[in-house]
Structure formats: C-alpha cells, structure tokens
Amino acid sequence: MNTLTNILARLKRSIAGTSFAKHVMVVSGSVIxxxxxxxxxxxxxxxxxxxxxxxTLSVFGAMFSVLxxxxxxxxxxxxxxxxxxxxxxHLLVLCLLITAIWTGLIVGVTFTAGNLVTHWxxxxxxxxxxxLWFLPIGVxxxxxxxxxxxxxxxxxxxxxxxxxQIMNNVIGSACTVTLGFFSVGLPGLITGSIMASVYSxxxxxxxxxxxxxxxxxxxxxxxxxxxxxxQYRYPLYTTWSVLLNSLSVYIxxxxxxxxxxxxxxxxxxxxxxxxxxxxxxxxxxxTPVFYSRAKQAQKDGTLAALTTKLxxxxxxxxxxxxxxxxxxxxxxFVLVFGGQWRRAGQYAATQAPWMFFSFLVYPLEALPxxxxxxxxAFLFQIVQFILRMGSLMIGISFHNDMLAMWLFGSTSALYMxxxxxxxxxxxxxxVAEILRKLGKDLVFAVIVFGACRGVMWWSxxxxxxxxxxxxxxxxxxxxRGIRQMMLGRxxxxxxxx
Length: 497
Prior knowledge:
The protein has about 500 residues and is an all-alpha fold.
C-alpha cells in the first residue's frame, strides 16, 4: 500500500512540475480511453461481423496508409522541426496542395481501372470492387488528418488532440455496433470508419483554421517553392522510407488477401490490433510529446539522456505482454472473441517476438529525422521490405499460412532488434546495458508464464482454473511495469528537458 501511495505521489509531483509529463498524461489518457473502448467493443463486433468483413476493411485501411504516405510527400513531418511560423504556414499549404493533386489522381485510377486493381489485390473478394469508391475518400482524409495533427502538435494542442482521439473511437464503435446488430456486414464497418474520420477531420480543421487564416494573406508561390526545396529531404528520402515501412507493415494484408483469401486477412488484422495494444497505450502516447521535445533536447545536449530514460521507463510494460501472447494467444482469442477467431490467436503467437521489439522502436522513429540520417533509415526500410515480402512469399508458395506467419514474425523480430540497436547508438545510448536488462526481464517472464502454461496443460485448458491463476499474475506484471515507468524515470527525464 505504501508503494502505491509513493507512486501516486511521485506521479502527482511530476504532473504538477513539468509540461512534458502533463502532455504525456493528457495524450496517454486519451489513448488509454480510446483503446478501452476498442477492447470493450471488440468481442461484440467479432460476433457481429465475419473475418472476411474485417479482411476487406483491412485491405482498405492498408491502402489508405500506404497511399496516404504519398499524399503529403511527408512535408508535414517538417512542421514539428521548423522554427519560423511563416515557413510552417507555407509547409501547411504545400501539404494541402499535394493532397489535392494526389487525391485527384486516385479518383481517376479508381474509376478507370477499378476492375484491374481489385483483381490484382484479391483472390476472392467481390466486395472490394463494390466499395472501391471509398478509396480516394479515405486517402484524402488520411493525408489531411496527418497534416492537421502535426500542426496541432506544433502548437502543443495536446488536450484537443486527445479529445479527438477519444470521440473518434466512440463514434466509430457506436456506428459499427449499431449497424452490426442489423447484420449489414461490411457496410457497417465502412460506415463506422467514415463517420469517425469525418468527425476527426472536422475537429482538426477547426483547430488549424484560425492559424491558417491569420497567415494566408502572406502565402506566396515563390516562397512555397523555396520551402519545398529547403525541405527536400522529406520527399526525397523520408517519403520513400516511410512508404517502404508502410508497405512492410501492410504487405501481409495484401499478400494474405491475394494468396489465401480475405478471411485470413481478417485473422491477421485482429491479431495485429491486439498485439499493438501496448504500443498504442504506452509508446503511442509518449511518442508525439517525445518528438516535439527531441529537437530541443538535441540542441541542449540532453537527447541521449532523454532517450535512455524513455526506453528504461517503458521496457517493463513491454516484456510480459509478448510472452503472455506467445504462450496463451490461441486460448485467449477463442475465449474473448469466439471460436471463429482461433486462427487469429495462432497468428498472434507467431508475431509476439516482432511486437516485443516494435514496442521499443516505435518511439524512436523520429531520431533519423533529427540527425538527418534519412538515407540510412531508407536502406533499413528496403531490407525490412525484402525480408517480410520474401518470408510471406515462401509461405504462399507452400500454400501454408502458418509457415508464412512464422517466417514473417521471426525475420521481422530480427530486423527490429538490429534497427533498435542502430537507433539507440545514434544518441550514444548504453545499448549493452539496455539489452541485458531486457534479457533478464524476458527470462523472468518466460519462467512465470511458462509455469502457468504447464498448469493450463495439466487442467486441459480449463478456464475456471486458468482465469483465477492468470489474473493475479497479469496484475503483478502490469503493476511492476507501471511502477518502473513512474518511479523516478519519467520524473528525471523531465528535469533534463
């Protein structure tokens, strides 16, 4: 009890004393609430919609993310680094112009070559062509949201962004559940996604509009060209790096849909959503604030300390979740989402090592931009893309989806480990010390959850035995990770900024 009181007291002092902690708590609070909503709605939707419905929606989501990268040529990333407000305003206009041109091109392709696109993407998904008109809308919304979100981060409008995040989940979940009860199928999922995107874009536009209207009279075409040239690294290197990274992330969606069918894509989609929970809850909440402070920390000579403290503070939460999923994934998915999602649980077990390292890499992805190492980062993305695509193609050639998943998970984990070491060395961080600590925590988690897995085998997967056993174990690891995150590490991190 005293330990919990001390943690809360330290957390309260940290929030009261530093803007970094305030921003982290505001953003993380919205992410946590949003994910709680998704977790609560997930078991309902998994029984209202088929895996093939989720598979088709995942194809659309993958296309939004991949094509949306080109929608701004990544110029919006510079909004967080340029110091001059006039230059930032020109960057904003530049992003909007590029988005308009790119959306127009996608509209043309959609309505002239829709049959060819769907035939190339899917093995058996007839719904994809029927709703392909959704593609240019989604890409446009995605690109605009990325631009306006970066502008809001520049203005440190984290409370407003947090509210948008929460309401986005509320609106999308309400729509999908309501329409799901009427057995409308895929249109229910699409409608929920559209309504959530419309709300988010509306709020972000209102957030950006006052700053934009105040500076629009100073916008000039020569200055747009000058700004575009001065930030040439973003379209020349960052765009291709992020595009390859996006393709590497979503290549399973495209290849599984083409090689095995949309149902298998649905299994993989749900698997990814669950595995990304700790990343979204912890790393995803800290990353925007870390990005907004990292540039100044580099100037102050404190970026190494900032990065080291960040990794130390989140590593405790990271360790137990992949081990738990690796050992109990299939059982957990059947229990929570229903028997039709058993394959998704099997997929989750194969991807757990990859997610272990992704959790650590995700907050550090801005470091190549800060150190102007976009070219090397781009080479890393090429290697990642080749590894992932090759592993999936081997599984498809053998007509074995589990072989594809095992190869995909293991090669991705190896890549993420090497990439993490490179990122950490950019700031001259203590790589060996971090890896040694992670190794000790990993061994401890494997021993504890391995013992629980033995009990599960002995009880023949009896949920009445396993649930009372796992709840306190999961509670212990969660409390242990939160304690590690709060006890002094984020506080000392703030003092250095």
